[in-house]
Design brief:
The chain is of the alpha/beta class. The protein has 10 helices and 10 strands. The strands form 2 sheets. The chain has a 6-stranded mixed sheet, with helices on both faces. Helix 3 runs parallel beside helix 6. The longest helix has 14 residues. It binds adenosine-5'-triphosphate. Adenosine-5'-triphosphate binds next to helix 1. One of its GO terms (molecular function) is ATP binding. Keywords: ATP-binding, Nucleotide-binding, Transport.
Length: 273
């Protein structure tokens, strides 16, 4: 698996150091710093992320949650001037290494954004687009993956009779579940969710939350949320960020009932934010 994430060696490239991490863990973050030009947005954070769990990232606006999330599948590479130092160990490789094949990485570590962003194509094509690009052409196989992904995203029953209708005809909540299905189709191990239900109405939000809880049996989920009730309802671990620092990281119940750090207590009790 790991080797599929490496670019082909080109002569003199250094051999990527392999660091094994505990089998219960999916990621190990060591002294991660992220910069936009001269400005440091994430300050030397270290944490481990457990497999098949939901990890919530909370904190006030601008504290570095999304920047950290995007570093996990190297989406920050797309931002001119952004750079990261430190390590994010996944599959015994450092994700931040230049030798990582980011296209392969982003299949294994999928991302869903705040605003549902389906392609202006049919529901079916939204899921098959990347699969075809990855070389899967056989219709029976595409049909199978479409059904499986929509089932897992709890959307199949609502759309099975209109797969060839435009994805834009779906409600916002359905569009977001379609975006989750699109990610699932790539068979990821980790799903990064950046405020996935903040743009949705309460009923769609509840459905997406239910779905996220259900997905953790198959995936490791990291979610940025501004909604502290959401973090306490769905996550197993919560990380509180403030001004680029990781202030406290613990079991969600502990963070919300008996945090160890005063700043966390002030934030969860609404004294700032
Ligand atoms: N593309 C960018 N270029 C320059 N600076 C950026 C960029 N994106 C974020 N920043 C800065 O990095 C810091 C962290 O931003 P980030 O978006 O990660 O915070 P956040 O906690 O996710 O905020 P929010 O909750 O509002 O989404 C902020 O100071 C922000 O202005």
């Amino acid at each position: 698996m790991a080797s599929a994430l490496m670019n082909k060696p080109t002569g003199k490239q250094e051999v990527q150091s392999v660091r094994q991490i505990n089998k219960e863990l999916i990621l190990e973050v060591n002294n991660l710093e992220i910069f936009y030009g001269e400005k440091r947005a994430v300050n030397e954070i270290s944490m481990v992320i457990e497999k098949n769990s939901i990890t919530a990232l909370i904190g006030p606006s601008g504290c570095g949650k999304s920047t950290f999330l995007r570093s996990i599948n190297r989406m920050n590479d797309l931002i001119p001037g952004a750079r990261a130092e430190g390590e994010i160990i996944y599959e015994d490789l450092n994700i931040l290494s230049e030798q990582i094949n980011v296209v392969a990485l982003r299949k294994e570590i999928g991302m869903v954004f705040q605003k549902p962003n389906p392609f202006p194509k049919s529901i079916y094509e939204n899921i098959t687009h990347a699969l075809k690009f990855a070389g899967i052409k056989k219709k029976s196989m595409l049909d199978e993956i479409v059904e499986e992904s929509l089932q897992k995203a709890a959307l199949w029953d609502e759309v099975k009779d209109r797969l060839h209708k435009s994805a834009l005809s779906l409600s916002g909540g359905q569009q977001q579940r379609l975006c989750i299905a699109r990610t699932i189709a790539m068979k990821p191990t980790i799903m990064l969710l950046d405020e996935p239900s903040s743009a949705l109405d309460p009923i769609s939000n509840a459905k997406v939350e239910e779905l996220i809880i259900d997905l953790k049996k198959d995936y490791s989920i990291i979610i940025v949320t501004h909604n502290m009730q959401q973090a306490s309802r769905i996550s197993d671990k919560t990380a509180f960020f403030f001004k680029g620092d990781l202030i406290e990281y613990d079991a969600t119940e502990k963070i919300f009932t008996n945090p160890s750090v005063k700043k966390t207590e002030e934030y969860i009790s609404g004294r700032f934010g």
